[in-house]
Structures are given as structure tokens and as C-alpha cells.
Amino acid sequence: MIHQWKRALLEGASGVFERGGRKKPEIEEEQVKELHAKIGELAVANSFLERKLKPWGGK
Q1: Is residue 2 included in any domain, yes or no?
Q2: Which helix (H) or strand (E) holds 42?
Q3: How many structural domains does the chain have?
Q4: Which of 51, 28, 31, 49 minimizes the C-alpha distance to 39?
Q5: Residue 39 lies in a domain
């Protein structure tokens, strides 16, 4: 097992230290907009539920 790890390290270690080795993740603008909308929707729902729970000893 250790020999396999060592071999994997020796084969792939050079890629870790190369400059510019990482490429930027590809995220579509449409997906970002959808996720922001979902975050807003969940924040509103959370706020609503928090206000409704106060009479029962919630926060």
C-alpha cells in the first residue's frame, strides 16, 4: 500500500507545484443567478419562520 502511495506521489507531485496548474472552475452565469435567487428565497422563508416562532419561545 505504501509503495502505491509513493508511486502515485512521484508520478503526480510535479503537477502540484507547477505554476498556473489550476484552471478556473467553469461556472455559468445563469447558474449563479439561480443560486442567488434560491439563497434569497430561503433567507425570506427563514426570516418568516423565525418571526412566527417567537410567540412559542423561539429566538
Answers
A1: no
A2: helix 29-53
A3: 1
A4: 31
A5: yes
Between CA 32 and CA 48, with CA 50 as vertex, the angle to 5 degrees is 60
% residues pLDDT > 70 (the chain): 81
Q: In this structure, is residue 50 part of a structural domain?
A: yes
Quick one: how far is CA 58 from the chain centroid? 30
By the 8 A CB rule, do 35 and 27 touch?
no
Place of cell 509503495: 3
Confidence class for position 35, pLDDT limits 50, 70, 90: very high
pLDDT score for 22: 63
Question: What confidence score (pLDDT) does residue 9 get?
Answer: 85
CB 50 within 8 A of CB 58: yes
What's the one-letter identity of residue 10? Answer: L
